């Protein structure tokens, strides 16, 4: 590819799926979500056919706001050379994150930060395609020094220095090749939320829970938080369906105040919940710490709505979580997620990524697999969330075999959608929406 090749367009599409019609994705805080993607495409004049694809995930209304935030970054990307971006992805990410005017809209949180993450992830997709590797392996074959160069250590050095990060990565270097081979042969453990949406009947919950166990999953998750009586009944049904040997996690999606979370979970404790996810505000670090102390041995998990690496740092410093849950589209892209994975490794806390949504399973699998290959070096007590819908819209969809993610082998981030899906579900003009709005 000529060194003069440039980014010639940053396209943004508002793509929405009417999942609210069947209550797929329903929970106590999001009772009728329409899973949506503010979808990014980086186009070049390289002539090699490679484009960068990624998305920011939303639940319907506001997807246009997210798409406009992404579009606001086009002047900082279009016209730059492909090599300038792909050969210095850390510098590229910092350029977007630290724009002295756009950062005012966060700083480093909210729609603008998610927009940055979407564009940064699209750049990683492009770089990995040029290298002919899936992103997890593209990352996993970088040197410790190259990986540390991707991280913005501003506001982290009281908890993690660049030197400590290099040491963590060097300790994981032995066995990298063996772990790559193990991933390719056996995949990565998954758990499924598909049985547990709040809008499902008890009968559907129990049937799907039994099917999940038959399919090889050793953990399922239920949404909770609307009614304690309903939650006790649903937990009873789920536990009877799967038996004592299967983990059941529960997820309140931020529904409770601190004491309410403690009281509610004590009602569910007899059914042996493995973790309580998002029991309260994602910003309430001390609240999570209080809940964790009160509910042991039930684990506390959070992260899908944590805005940036600094809040993750404080959750870990405060001993507020047992499980770190990264999300591929919430923070400032792969670079910031590398920082979070390194923080979790420093504090010895397992990472179990949030997925579901649209495209989240496809993208976050790469981060978990990279963590196994090059950061933590283990899958012990680690699982990636899985939800069984909307994968058919992706060119390289996730594959689950015996309750495990099959490692992707196609180059890129697995985020590229079929052109027909982009056209059909475009909002509000696509055929699926034209008859609804």
UniProtKB/TrEMBL annotation:
CDD domains: rTSbeta_L-fuconate_dehydratase. It catalyses: L-fuconate = 2-dehydro-3-deoxy-L-fuconate + H2O. It comes from the Bacteria. The keyword Metal-binding applies. Its EC number is 4.2.1.68. Its cofactor is Mg(2+). The keyword Magnesium applies. Residues 202-298 form the Mandelate racemase/muconate lactonizing enzyme C-terminal domain. InterPro entries: Enolase-like_C_sf, Enolase-like_N, Enolase_C-like, L-fuconate_dehydratase, Mandel_Rmase/mucon_lact_enz_CS, Mandelate_racemase_C, Mandelate_racemase_N_dom, RHMD-like. This is L-fuconate dehydratase.
């Amino acid at each position: 590819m000529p060194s003069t090749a440039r980014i010639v367009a940053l396209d943004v599409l508002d793509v929405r799926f009417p999942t609210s019609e069947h209550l797929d994705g329903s929970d106590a805080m999001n009772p009728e979500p329409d899973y949506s993607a503010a979808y990014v495409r980086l186009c070049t004049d390289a002539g090699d056919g490679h484009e960068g694809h990624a998305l920011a995930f939303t639940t319907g209304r506001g997807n246009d706001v997210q798409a406009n935030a992404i579009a606001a970054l086009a002047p900082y990307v279009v016209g730059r050379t492909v090599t300038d971006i792909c050969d210095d992805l850390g510098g590229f990410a910092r350029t977007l994150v630290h724009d002295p005017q756009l950062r005012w809209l966060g700083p480093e949180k909210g729609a603008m930060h998610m927009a940055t993450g979407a564009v940064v992830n699209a750049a990683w997709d492009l770089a990995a395609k040029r290298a002919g590797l899936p992103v997890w392996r593209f990352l996993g074959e970088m040197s410790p020094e190259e990986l540390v160069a991707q991280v913005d250590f501003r506001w982290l050095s009281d908890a993690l220095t660049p030197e400590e990060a290099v040491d963590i990565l060097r300790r994981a270097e032995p066995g990298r090749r063996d772990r790559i081979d193990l991933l390719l042969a056996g995949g990565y453990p998954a758990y499924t939320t598909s049985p547990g949406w709040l809008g499902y009947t008890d009968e559907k919950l129990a049937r799907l829970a039994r099917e999940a166990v038959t399919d090889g999953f050793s953990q399922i998750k239920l949404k909770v938080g609307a009614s304690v009586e309903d939650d006790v009944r649903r937990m009873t049904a789920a536990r009877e369906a799967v038996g004592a040997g299967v983990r059941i996690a529960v997820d309140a999606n931020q529904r409770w105040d601190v004491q309410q979370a403690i009281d509610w979970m004590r009602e569910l404790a007899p059914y042996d919940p493995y973790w309580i996810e998002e029991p309260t505000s994602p910003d309430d670090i001390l609240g999570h710490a209080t809940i964790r102390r009160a509910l042991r041995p039930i684990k506390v998990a959070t992260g899908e709505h944590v805005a940036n690496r600094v809040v993750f740092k404080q959750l870990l410093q405060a001993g507020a979580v047992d499980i770190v849950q990264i999300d591929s589209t919430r923070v400032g892209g792969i670079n910031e997620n590398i920082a979070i994975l390194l923080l979790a490794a420093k504090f010895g806390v397992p990472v179990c990524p949030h997925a579901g949504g649209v495209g989240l399973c496809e993208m976050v699998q790469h981060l978990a697999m990279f963590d196994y290959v090059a950061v933590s070096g283990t899958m012990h007590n680690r699982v990636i969330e899985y939800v069984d819908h909307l994968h058919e819209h992706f060119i390289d969809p996730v594959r689950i075999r015996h309750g495990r993610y099959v490692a992707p082998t196609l180059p890129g981030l697995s985020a590229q959608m079929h052109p027909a899906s982009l056209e059909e579900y475009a909002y509000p003009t696509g055929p699926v929406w034209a008859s609804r709005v």
